[in-house]
Amino acid sequence: MDTAGGTRTESATTGHAARLARALAVVLGTPQIPLRLRAWDGSEAGPPDAPVLEFRSRKALRRMLWSPGQLGLSRAYVAGEIDAPGDIFAAFTALSSAGKFAEPGPFRPPTAGELWLLLRTAVRLGALGPNPVPPPEESRVTRKGKVHSRRRDAAAISHHYDVGNDFYALVLGPSMVYSCAVWPGAADGNPAEDDGLPAGLDAAQEAKLDLVCRKLGLEPGMRVLDVGCGWGSFALHAAARYGVTVVGVTLSAEQAALARKRAADAGLTDKVEIRVQDYRDVQDGPFDAISSIGMSEHVGREQTPAYAAALFGLLRPGGRLLNHAISWNAGPTRPDPDSFIPRYVFPDGEMISLGDMVVALETTGFEVLDVEALRRHYALTLRAWVSRLEENWERAVHLAGEGRARVWRLYMASSALGFETGLTGVNQVLVRRPGPGNPPLRRTGWL
Question: Tell me: the pLDDT tens digits for 313-322?
Fold first, then answer.
């Protein structure tokens, strides 16, 4: 990390920081950035009461020059060349609400004139040089094979989930549930629904698992398929509490190993089978019910109809499917595939709108029984995960490396903001394959 000395003062507006502020304003496309910038020479610029963004190295500016958008800033953050030393949510809120970053969809690159100003700044600050190598945490999955082929999907899942079970346990807690929890609110008899996290993360995750079981109408003796079973939390809950047998499938070998151990420790090996298997290769249906919790985001827009058809074929007539998935709420504009999350978190992942998901399920032949939006619940869940990560930062760095820990901090904090602003949502869509019997007349049958 290159530094240039200097003494930091609260009123310093000369030195490198002032030029950095102008450069970042070019990247953001805004006349004034809503941040307090601190440069590697100790100088500062920007509103004194604004959240602090610290440039620790000239290399951060070089990354912005070569990739003048979200990707360049993200690479610099993952590499430790940029930091938000205070409240990360306040810093990211200010950054993501400014100029071009406030627009949903693909980032509009700087114009030739803006790039020239950025280049002049880099020259004056001694930041010119070759394009820095991306941090090693950046995915290389997108360079291999056909999108959403079985092999490439397996590689994408491995990139995200095979980080280490101990690291995930540190972030997720004992529940080991990696999807939106369901928190108590005013409607549940808790008038202070926004006063912290009153139920606790593990209780909120258990509430979500139980809600899925009730929506699916699980009863003893049923056979259930859990698509994208993760570390087996839903399978264990459904088997222990509802007396069903569960087949869980995942493409992550590390997830499967821990899920099998958890089933053995709970004495549920006769009721829970965990497979490393693509859902497209499951041949031993029909199942009485199917859960898909936080998995269909990996399927892709073009493959969603085939995904719905595959699950329809695996479900007995009259059986229910619950699809729990993040949705893209920014209209027809799609997320930028060269932005941070596709490059570092979910290679080939693709959120579709709630409407598109419902159309795909209905077109396949499913009857829609219920749709429940849980957007605010996911924001609370992500904030709880960020708190756990920050409380255990040194351990997280030891387990996964500083770069990977920074990826997760950036990913979860920025995702929380996306749910809070409504850019993204998360929905549980409950559907039924037509057949004998009838569902409850109203949703009170499972709530």
Answer: 999 999 999 9
